[in-house]
Protein: Serine--tRNA ligase
Amino acid sequence: MLDIKWIRENPNALVDALKKRSWSEAEARSTTDDLIARDEARRAHVLKLQHAQERRNAASKEIGKAMAARDMALAEKLKAEVGDIKSFIQDGEAEARRLDRAFTDALAVIPNLPLDNVPAGKDENDNVELRKVGKVSPPANWAREHFDIGEELGLMDFERAARLSGSRFTVLRGQLARLERALGQFMLDLHTTEHGYTEVQVPLLVRDDALFGTGNLPKFEEDLFFVPHGESRLGLIPTSEVPLTNLVREEITAHEKLPLRFTALTPCFRSEAGSAGRDTRGMLRQHQFYKVEMVSITDADSSVAEHERMTACAEEVLKRLDLPFRTVVLCTGDMGFGARRTHDIEVWLPGQKTYREISSCSVCGDFQARRMNARYRDKDGKGNLFVHTLNGSGVAVGRALIAVMENYQNEDGSITVPDVLRPYMGGLERIEVK
RNA sequence: GGAGAAGUGGCAGAGUGGUUGAAUGCACCGCACUCGAAAUGCGGCAUGGGUGCAAGCCCAUCGGGGGUUCGAAUCCCUCCUUCUCCGCCA
Structure:
């Protein structure tokens, strides 16, 4: 959520920012004007209401004094007077709530402002490569995609998964199931022992409020799964960014405690409503997948540096696994709703002969903090400021499994186990057809 | 699932209809005393919003939301959370 005071003072800057996010000039302008109009209506109304409340409060105090002085005639006279204001105040409070709600609803669907150093662009074709790491060997003519490798090994089963749950689910068995578990453990251990993140076990079902806090609601409800819960519902987390970030919601964190760095290995659930027909084969795009997530909570001055640090932590996972990758900055048009700047890490898939996203690290500034009311007490103890939040995959476990399978495949159909994973695999060196 | 109790400022803890945004203690900040520290004394110390050049003034907030009343931390409804007992259960 953006700061309405800032919008009031910089309406043209908001229009420019929205245009950078591929909004049309007309839409950006009318949305901005609408926000400002709603804000003004709200404030004008509050002013009138507060004057009425002021008169009521003063009169009520006088009534108290009159009654203490046993001057019942004066008390009754004042009561009659305040009685008239009362209905105005009651209607006024209801109207204030209505105007406030309408204003917040409008503000809640405005995306975050891109940082100045984010390249302008329309879609993923305008993203800018920052670096390429690792050697991409010329694709062998026998290189295959992960689903062929997995099915031939008899360890990856889409048919039965579909019978259980439909499309976009996968059953893994034996050493392949273990390999995925090994990947998750390896990543978690790396971040907790070397990168300073605290491991957290979080709920996988969360309230709407939490989803609003991270920006998944109200705009992206169709991407989420919900389960009924009493009269209400709970959402399945699309990423542990949601519970990890909301850990500081409605709190004032002491400045000395920042930065907070959290990591978690959790399943993630996504309806993939808008991606029918995309990546239908294999386990690249699933309704359910494991991911190791990193979340940092920082003060206002440290978030940009923390973003570089977090990106490096994610890259380190791929370096240790010896997987070739490249890191790109998303252009303004390709960035997510809550992000100010996003680095995507794309891993090389020899079977697909292309780079595919395996991590996405974003700095959100105070955008999510406003939605969560997450603050910290300033160094000098003066004011309470909104924290800055960052999140990044460190990395997607399901996709890491795919990357390992494709990059470590052998011509005979076996998969070499990467060195760093062998301790997690009981020393196993190769996964092969039995 | 059934029965009961409770949610007040950073923390502890008063307050059951009228200058109570809230006693008191602790913590914290400033000053005094001291060579320095401790102890002691004095003063300060909630958040959000509106308005104003500013000093300030005003409004709201005692778990959230709604209501009763001239007036609500205090009464009513509802939701959330925590705790205790019973039942069930991984």
Q: What stands out?
A: Chain A has twelve helices and 18 strands. Chain A has a mean pLDDT of 92.
